[in-house]
Design brief:
The complex is a heterodimer of chains A (about 110) and B (about 110).
Chain A (H helix, E strand, L loop, with lengths): L2 E4 L4 E4 L4 E8 L5 E7 L6 E7 L4 E4 L2 E6 L4 E6 L8 E8 L6 E3 L3 E6 L1
Parallel strand pairs in A: 2-11
Antiparallel strand pairs in A: 1-3, 3-8, 4-5, 4-9, 6-7, 7-8, 9-10, 9-11
Chain B lengths: L3 E4 L2 E4 L5 E7 L5 E8 L3 E10 L2 E4 L6 E7 L2 E6 L8 E8 L7 E2 L3 E5 L1
Parallel strand pairs in B: 2-11
Antiparallel strand pairs in B: 1-3, 3-8, 4-5, 4-9, 5-6, 7-8, 9-10, 9-11
Classes of the chains: A mainly beta (about 110), B mainly beta (about 110).
């Protein structure tokens, strides 16, 4: 079955540094992959979508890469700020359907 | 923010009682989803809808039923609540199904 893995350990970095989060998947080749941000007590918020024919996508300080050979996506936040502290979820489309499968998320903590 | 609300926001109920959660949208999006979120499991799809009266099961549908009689409303019913259904429930909407999802604020359900 399809499986997504995100690092369950929190990532703790200093303000101003680049945060890099990893999403690995197995047993499937999704047509696209998405990243969401979730703050405590709130619903996830969509950040970026990258398709299988796109190697990289950027939005302001965010950058996502998608390596279909390695079955891996990297999510980067440059010049990180304490306000970037949140849990980041990776999701990929399931079985060529209108459904997503989500990873468990990685918590990011940016220290001032 | 996408116009999506959930009610109730919090509910405590007893084992064996039926419970209905409501998701309401003002965006006229075709696709609607119900997820549950539990520590260590991330977001898991319960049921989804691809149109009025058109629904399908997700990965954890046992013990749940849904109905969608209008575009704007998607109801999730726990036919006989169990303690294992204690969770945070999120509704999401999507215009095309193959793009981003917009999440509601969530409902925290406790089954005693």
């Amino acid at each position: 079955s399809q499986k997504i893995e995100q690092n369950s350990e929190a990532l703790n970095i200093q303000e101003g540094k680049t945060a890099t989060l990893t999403c690995n998947y197995t047993n499937y080749s999704p047509a696209y992959l998405q990243w969401y941000r979730q703050d405590p007590g709130r619903g996830p918020v969509f950040l970026l979508l990258i398709r299988e024919n796109e190697k990289e996508k950027r939005k302001e300080r965010l950058k996502v890469t998608f390596d279909t050979t390695l079955k891996q996506s990297l999510f980067h936040i440059t010049a990180s700020q304490p306000a970037d502290s949140a849990t980041y979820l990776c999701a990929l489309e399931r079985d060529s359907s209108y459904k997503l499968i989500f990873g468990s998320g990685t918590r990011l903590l940016v220290r001032p | 923010d996408a116009g999506i609300t959930q009610s109730p926001r919090h509910k405590v109920t007893e084992t064996g009682t039926p419970v209905t959660l409501r998701c309401h949208q003002t965006e006229n999006h075709r696709y609607m989803y119900w997820y549950r979120q539990d520590p260590g499991h991330g977001l898991r799809l319960i049921h989804y809808s691809y149109g009025v009266k058109d629904t399908d099961k997700g990965e954890v549908s046992d013990g749940y039923s849904v109905s969608r009689s209008k575009t704007e409303d998607f109801l999730l019913t726990l036919e006989s609540a169990t303690s294992s259904q204690t969770s945070v429930y999120f509704c999401a909407i999507s215009p095309q199904g193959v793009d981003e999802q917009f999440f509601g604020p969530g409902t925290r359900l406790t089954v005693l």
